[in-house]
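Q: Start with the shorter request: fold the first protein.
A: Done. Sequence, then structure:
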Amino acid sequence: MKNNVLRYRKIRGINRRKRTIEQWGEANKVLDVDRLNREKRDYVKFLVDPWSRLSLINSIYPEPTGDCEYLLIKNVQNIYQSWRDSLEELQTPYYLQIWLRENYVSRSQIVCAIDEIKDFYDDAFEAMDTQPENCIRSSSHYNDQTAAVLDLYNWTLYRYTEAYDLTDPWDAEYVEGLDSQQLLRTQIIEQIEYQIVEIDKVWLLA
């Protein structure tokens, strides 16, 4: 596993990708209140080609940069604001959050929930011991282009972690191939030893 080296594929047709990101944002701005009332939760993922394409070979597309990164973040925040307006009209307690992934911005989401589900996401991410001195300005996404949208809100940085069963050969092999800085601690869960791994960091609205 350690010898597997990912190759990055070239993204072509950037202007077309930019239009598709804008179309994705517009298509998801209206919260489906009927579905929310029925299922008690809703979310939007960045399902824009080629970033949402499943790779079956040892190559991936690089994360959005430049105009594409800016448009992704702008549209995520537009969706958030539109959903917040709709949720306020419902006059019911709710959870609404942007999950802005630090290393994999294309996996960012907008998530909302109501009623008995609204507290489900409170422990979705692990708190950091300390926050970056410059807050969101320390993010790799923060630049002259994105500052105008990122500065609209206050952000807090969290860890996105996963637990891997060290008694499982597949999990153990995966953990062995990780950077040691990702390995946070081992933890006993229901009498099984797990390795807690930092998968990414994620910015949430404060």
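Q: Next, the second protein, separately.
A: Sequence, then structure:
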Amino acid sequence: MSAVNITNVTVLGNPSSFLTPFQFEISYECVTPLKDDIEWKLIYVGSAEDETYDQLLESVLVGPVNVGNYRFVFQADPPDPSKIREEDIIGVTVLLLTCSYLGQEFVRVGYYVNNDYEDEQLREEPPPKVLIDKVQRNILSDKPRVTKFPINFHQENSESGEQADGNKELPAPLDNPSNEGL
């Protein structure tokens, strides 16, 4: 069982211009107190073929976290278009929202993002060089891909790879493709 459970993620200001900052309202619960901070990251996948084009847009530490329900708005600057190959700016990519504890990622929420020109004429006849200020970003927020990773939230209680509640860590991530029970 996870000590922290995401209960909801709402994408704010969607769709928007490619150059507009990202905003997510994140709700989560903590079921057992944690001594250290949890780390939230937002990563923009710049190319499906080469992860060197991925950009860490923002990383924030929250905590220490006591038992209870929490909600905050996570804001991140848009990706730097100069660090994305020209042919990868227009089209579909991925945005990853991750949460970690003590360097161990325990949940990842992935969203498909469609970048295209808002203007129909530009979509039909794209210019030779991308006009980034005319590109609209649309996060497909109704179908996030949620992956949960089992971690040991209380390492001092474990010496044999078992979690504090007695469950052994699972070798593969658990997937929950629906928005329910994030």
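Q: Describe the second briefly.
A: Residues 14 and 145 are 18 Å apart (CA to CA). Confidence is low (pLDDT under 50) at residues 158-181.
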